[in-house]
Design a protein that fits this description.
The protein is an alpha+beta fold and 610 residues long. The chain has 14 helices and 30 strands. Strands 7-6-8-5-9-10-12-11 form an eight-stranded mixed sheet, with helices on both faces. Strands 17-16-22-13-14-21-18-19 form an eight-stranded antiparallel sheet. A six-stranded antiparallel beta barrel has the order 23-28-26-25-29-30. GO terms for molecular function: GTP binding; GTPase activity; translation elongation factor activity.
């Protein structure tokens, strides 16, 4: 890589000095050369800072896969070249599931060359024509000047977001779990984002989000609720502000953010864990109150998101209630926590639109980047920065991974069960794999006896509007007609009859014990969370160990105490009981017949010992 900053250059004078004094005082001349070199570098660095030469001369080289494309310029292409460029754009949009980012004025190797004003205008015009051809819109995210003293003309690079116009409900859908301590302003922030009106300082914005009377009376969320925020193909916010219905928001949006509002109070922790494990959020938003700082369940929620490997960004709310010094103290507190050995995160404070764009792009590329926003739901301070971030935030999975999941057999996780007048039994959840259509015949289970029951899918609703086809990774509600609701429970799965699903009462998992007051041994009972499964299980045995202490690892066999469950090998596992907490993944499933044989052998061994 060529050093364009000039920091690595050595002046001819230094060389002559070294040559002339080579025999008489090597140590002295070497020291003096070093000092002069350092002073020269400092002078050049100061000059570069004064000239505002902060942009790096290189981006990483362009990747063949992914949704980011580098283009040096797009000035007056021939018809053949234009067709080729449009096909290339279509590929990038497909890779980004409807979104692509074009860097104009950048060579394929990542060198920031920049374009003159006239060339940039012509290139953006061509890009707009390309987008129109493939049914998309463009949004200019930012322009930056590139000046390396190569000539006196100002050259710029432009970053452009290209997004497909929505068609047949095939918008990009990202799920964001909202975490944070009680009274940190989670529901109020969601109310302001989705309703389009600022809060009055007394929680008016959150009233539409509550599902129960006691939540309205106490102002505390105790259940899981879903809120939607849309962005159209031009990057404009689409919400309920203009008396739109949920169906209108879905129709107008190319990208949808589904917020999963979780409970902050410690006594509703099991509900919060269920929301994180069952609804498969793409990202987590941790809300911290500026005036109270890191308090209550904040650390616990951060730990849960990290244990489940959910990328997290932080919002410091209520900055209108306290001084700038208090806000800075809370941010410093968060930065210290994130940099601790257990977290190993790199905090990125977002203070302007440029930071928001950078944060959104780096957030998904690097696991350690954690953006921090400071805002107010009452004054609206810095609220736009969060919207810019959410608008640009790319999906974690690419189109190839999505296609692979869709090729598999249908598997739908049952998270919620309702009885709706004139509709019948309705189940809500997430389609883990395959494709589900109206009228499709599936089997649901396992029941308490370990059986699967046949049923037929009636209608499908996604984000409160009718949908004909459900694809892998999407959340929806399915109407099951007259199917008996009493036969259903949370934690069941609806799968294709071709799948021949395996169920188990016992399973083995490789775990790490995060915390235990004493020791963790055979006979301990814990609440196990695996995906949408939540049930109490007994520790049957610890392979190779008699007991576990905090921080230790082992392969453990668990046994469900009530009924068998459907689990997947490799699924993330989280267990808890009081202050006891642990994480791990499923390594082996033991079918019911095998469980019975192993239990008999285990009892015989115990009798021999006695």
């Amino acid at each position: 890589m060529v050093d364009l900053s000039g920091n690595g250059a050595v002046s001819p004078g230094h060389t002559r000095h070294g040559q002339g004094s080579g025999n008489t005082g090597k140590k002295t001349s070497k020291k003096s050369r070093t000092k002069r070199g350092k002073r020269g570098r400092k002078r050049r660095n100061k000059k570069n800072i004064r000239n505002n030469k902060t942009p790096p001369p290189y981006f990483p080289p362009e990747a063949e896969e992914g949704n980011i494309e580098y283009k040096l310029k797009l000035v007056n292409p021939t018809q053949y070249r234009f067709e080729h460029l449009a096909t290339q754009l279509k590929w990038r949009l497909q890779e980004g599931r409807g979104e692509a980012v074009y860097q104009i004025g950048v060579e394929d190797n990542g060198l920031l060359v920049g374009l003159t004003e006239a060339d940039m205008r012509a290139s953006l015009k061509t890009l707009k024509r390309m987008a129109e051809k493939v049914g998309a819109d463009i949004t200019l995210l930012r322009e930056r000047e590139v000046d390396y003293d190569l000539d006196r003309n100002t050259r710029k690079i432009a970053e452009v977001l290209v997004r497909k116009v929505p068609d047949d409900q095939q918008f990009l859908d990202l799920r964001v779990a909202v975490l944070g301590n009680v009274d940190s302003g989670k529901s109020t922030l969601l109310g302001v984002l989705t309703q389009g009106e600022l809060d009055n300082g007394r929680g008016r914005a959150r009233l539409n989000l509550f599902r129960h009377l006691h939540e309205i009376q106490t102002g505390r969320t105790s259940s899981i609720s879903f809120e939607i925020l849309g962005f159209n193909s031009k990057g404009e916010v689409v919400n309920y502000s203009e008396s739109r219905t949920a169906e209108e928001i879905c129709e107008s949006s190319s990208k949808m953010i589904t917020f999963i509002d979780l409970a902050g109070h410690h006594k509703y922790l099991k509900t919060t864990i269920f929301g994180l494990t069952s609804y498969c959020p793409d990202f987590a938003m941790l809300v911290v109150s500026a005036n109270t700082g890191i308090a209550g369940t904040t650390r616990e929620h951060l730990g849960l998101a990290m244990a489940l490997k959910v990328p997290i960004f932080i919002v410091v709310s209520k900055v209108d209630l306290c001084s700038r010094g208090t806000v800075d103290r809370t941010v410093r507190q968060l930065e210290r926590l994130l940099k601790q050995p257990g977290c190993n995160k790199l905090p990125l404070l977002v203070s302007g639109p440029d930071d928001a764009v950078t944060a959104a792009q780096q957030f998904t590329q690097s696991e350690c980047i954690t953006p921090i926003f400071t805002l107010s739901s009452v004054s609206g301070e810095s609220l736009e920065l969060l919207k810019v971030f959410l608008n640009i935030l790319p999906p974690l999975s690419n189109s190839k991974e999505q296609e692979e999941l869709m090729q598999q057999l249908t598997e739908f996780q049952v998270d919620e069960i309702y009885s709706v007048p004139d509709v019948g039994t309705v189940v809500g959840g997430t389609l883990y794999s395959g494709v589900c259509r109206e009228g499709e015949r599936l089997v649901v289970g396992p029941t308490d006896e370990g059986r699967f029951l046949r049923l037929k899918v009636g209608s499908i609703q996604r984000n409160r509007s009718a949908c004909r086809v459900l694809r892998a990774g999407q959340a929806a509600t399915l109407a099951l007609g007259n199917f008996d609701r009493s036969l259903l429970r949370k934690g069941m799965v609806m799968v294709s009859p071709k799948m021949n699903p395996t169920i188990c009462c016992q399973f083995e998992a490789a775990i790490v014990l995060l915390f235990h007051a004493k020791t963790f041994r055979r006979g301990s009972q814990v609440t196990v969370h695996v995906g949408n499964v939540r049930q109490t299980a007994t520790v049957e045995c610890l392979h190779g160990k008699d007991e576990l202490r905090t921080g230790e690892r082992a392969v453990v066999r668990f046994c469900f105490i009530k009924h068998p469950e459907y689990l997947r090998l490799g699924a993330k596992l989280l267990f808890r009981e009081g202050v006891t907490k642990g994480i791990g993944h499923v390594t082996r499933l033991l079918p019911p017949s095998q469980n019975h044989d192993q239990n008999q052998n285990h009892d015989q061994n115990l009798q021999k010992e006695h």
